[in-house]
């Protein structure tokens, strides 16, 4: 909901948007962790390792999208 509100402000005020790769990575990480957590009532400890690994993976993905793919 917060991202939707922010995007609405950007759209209606016609602001410049230079954060597509970052938003895509945030959505991918959120969906991935949400899917992993949605199938369990109790989260095992090993899932914390997956959550912690998502940070360097997301940094790498933003770097790939920004510098190698030229996405902004």
Could you give the topology of this structure?
Blueprint: H1 2-12, H2 20-38, H3 46-68
Description:
There is one protein chain. It is built from 3 helices and no strands. By secondary structure, it is mainly α. The chain has one domain (17-68). α2 packs antiparallel against α3 (46-68). The longest helix is centred in the C-terminal third of the chain and has 23 residues, at 46-68. The radius of gyration is 15 Å and the shape is flat. The relative contact order is 0.14. The model has no long low-confidence stretch (mean pLDDT 89).
Offer a few descriptive terms.
72 residues, mainly alpha
Short structural description:
This protein is mainly α and 72 residues long. The protein is 74% helix and 0% strand. The longest helix is centred in the last third of the chain and has 23 residues.
Average residue-wise pLDDT: 89
**Tally of structural domains:** 1
Level of helix content?
over 70%
Task: Catalogue the unreliable spans.
Answer: none
Largest sheet, if any?
none
Principal-axis shape: flat
Distance between the termini: 23 Å
SS content category: mainly alpha
């Amino acid at each position: 909901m917060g991202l939707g509100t922010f995007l609405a402000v950007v759209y209606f005020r016609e602001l410049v948007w230079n954060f597509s790769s970052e938003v895509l990575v945030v959505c991918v990480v959120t969906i991935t962790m949400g899917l992993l957590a949605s199938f369990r009532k109790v989260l095992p400890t090993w899932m914390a390792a997956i959550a912690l690994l998502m940070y360097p993976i997301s940094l790498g993905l933003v770097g790939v999208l920004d510098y190698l793919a030229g996405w902004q």
